[in-house]
Amino acid sequence: MCGIVGYLGTKNAAEVIVDGLSKLEYRGYDSAGIAVCSEGGLEIRKFKGRLAVLAEDIEKNEMKGNLGIGHTRWATHGEPSDTNSHPHFNKDKTIAVVHNGIIENYMELKEELMADGVEFLSQTDTEVIPHLVDKYYEGNLLDAVYKTVERLRGAYALGVVCKDAPDELVAVRKDSPLIAGIGEGENFVASDIPALLKYTRKVYFLENGEVVHIKGTDLKIYDAERNPVEKEIFDVTWDVEAASKGGFDCFMAKEIHEQPEGIKNTLERRLDESGKIVLDSIKMKKEDLEKINKIYIVACGTAYHAGLLGKKALEAFLNVPVITDIASEFRYNDNFVDENSLVILVSQSGETADTLAVLRDSKAKGARILAVTNVVGSSIAREADDVFYTWAGPEIAVASTKAYTTQIVSLYMIALNFALEKGSIKEDYYMYMIEKMKTLPEGVQSILDNQDKIKEIAQKIVDKEHAFFLGRGIDYALAMEGSLKLKEVSYIHAEAFAAGELKHGTIALIEEGTPVISIATQEKLFEKMVSNMQEVTARGAYVVAIAQEHNKGVEKVADDVIYIPNSDDMLSPVMAVVPMQLLSYYVSTLRGLDVDKPRNLAKSVTVE
Ligand code: G6P
Asked: Which residues form the SIS domain (predicted)?
């Protein structure tokens, strides 16, 4: 986690860095800091709290200089505090380091450095790095960084500056994301593209072990063996507006409203003249598919919930069992992955540490790896055999919304094409599903256009401590996402249950007024859901149902109903999740919380 930005150019470095960090706060936001190098020396400022605390301090008391590094933190080692914030520095405060990742052997390095007489100020793993750079520095910063990283185990993206090298910045990555940006007479490094969009669209994606050396106006990249590397420049095509709030009060609201467009882009830009889906970036052929006898979908968080729906689609269309698992569990389980396995990894960021680890383990076992991700050039995208990009546009809010719906649509598209290729579905059904999927953007839009009811419901649950989400089949997978959304942005304790399971224990928790969001979009399970709603109504629950428009009968058992447009049962989740996203957003807003940056969370989880 954590975000880093480095700059060397002609502008005020602090301004560029703070602006860049503001686009990376999704990576962590419990403290922020900066080091600026100028003729006057190396100045370091860092504070616990949001980036705004640092920005205010700089506003009051300007930091001069054209070279600097900055950091926004999500604590792993050591609580959020001024001292534990980055940059960390050596004894004489001549070397400053920002770090994203975890140094696994920091304890032994710390002991070694302490034996050399080094005093440690923070509880972080990172602090060993500036001391090591100091130990190896003999007038050549690049050389000192190389020698330092040889000693490190774990994951890192590092930015290093030194008072005695006032026109140099060195950055290096291993298992944590890092890009370099090239401007006119200025160069940058950052954890992610949005940090640089205001200044440049020309970036390099760095591979593991690569080192960036910026000296004056020159930027060079070397591999781990110190050989120069020629890389292709990647031109970023998204507009700056796509990474800013565009009139909404927060990114989550904006991103919820961008779903019709995201779904449309993901689907329709891939349809050929005959209306069929072109999976151009997936190179798997019929013979590859035939070889596969096990399919796994592995992911974390919301992406895992999308994977649960992908499983339903693959099983229904391809007629084969599919195992969906959480990456942090899967990587340590006996998972039977082999060369006849297809492992589908779903990840918005393409950087989630556990998902990436599953990719590498499964690849080593000979499995075919298919990534479904939103971030072009991310580690998962680069290391997979095949990639399918969700075209949701940048997702900034920590709570994932548009990535989820586009992930579901992507997984359905993949399942449909594989099934057609394999001959397990007929062409008529394939075309019927595509036609139905084409109506999704309009369906989602109609929900977005009618939010009054959802706002009313939010008022009714804003003061509750607990909420339950019920569903059966596909709707159960959806209930998990609904409950995650509510808990992460509103802090209401929320749980999802398979509706039939509730009476095996949890129903004991239902009391007068407990909100129970009941998703009933599946025709064949509708009556069963109605019975489950009756069971909780009888215990005093406040029941909110989400149902297809034609199922008006639900009004008899629910206190409030949110209707979604009629659709194919398989596709209704893409619409039914939207009222739950909006509900979570409204409850969070009514509670006066920071919707985009919920406490203790970060968007990109690049640690285990
Ligand atoms: C974090 C985010 C979630 C996200 C999960 C997986 O926990 O807060 O919104 O679903 O990571 O992230 P990924 O980028 O792999 O989809």
From this structure: 285-424, 457-598
Its pTM stands at 0.81
- pLDDT of 238 > 80? The answer is no
The residue extents of the domains of the chain are 3-237, 243-438, 449-590
603 in active site: yes
Return the pLDDT at 247. Answer: 73
Contact 260, 442 (CB under 8 A): yes
Of 578 and 502, the structure prediction assigns the larger pLDDT to: 578
- CATH numeric code, 3-237: 3.60.20.10
The CATH H-level (homologous superfamily) assignment of domain 449-590 is Glucose-6-phosphate isomerase like protein; domain 1 (3.40.50.10490)
Query: Can you tell me the distance from the alpha carbon of 521 to that of 57, in angstroms, rounded to the nearest whole number?
Result: 52
Whether 250 is a known active-site residue: answer: no
- Annotated catalytic residue within 2, 37, 250, 300: 2
Q: Mutation test of ligand 1: which of 410, 485, 488, 603 has the most ligand atoms closer than 8 Å to its C-beta? A: 603
Within this chain, domains 3-237 and 243-438 share the same CATH topology: no
Given a cut of 80, is residue 243 above it in pLDDT? no
Beta pairing partners, 494: 467
Atom of ligand 1 nearest to the CA of 349: 14
Q: How far is the CA of 255 from the centre of ligand 1 (A)?
A: 15
Give dist(CA 535, CA 514) in Å, integer. Answer: 13
Protein residues whose CB sits closer than 6 Å to any atom of ligand 1: 300-303, 347-349, 352, 355, 398, 400, 601, 603, 605
- Quick one: average pLDDT of 384-390? 94
CATH number, domain 243-438, options 3.40.190.10, 3.90.226.10, 3.40.50.1240, 3.40.50.10490: 3.40.50.10490
Neighbour tally for 459: CB within 10 Å:
11
- Res. 276 pLDDT band, cuts 50 70 90: very high
Query: pLDDT confidence of 380, banded at 50, 70, 90?
Result: very high
- 43 membership: H or E segment, kind and range: strand 41-48
The span from the CA of 76 to the CA of 513, in Å, is: 39
Longest CA–CA span in the chain (Å) reads: 79
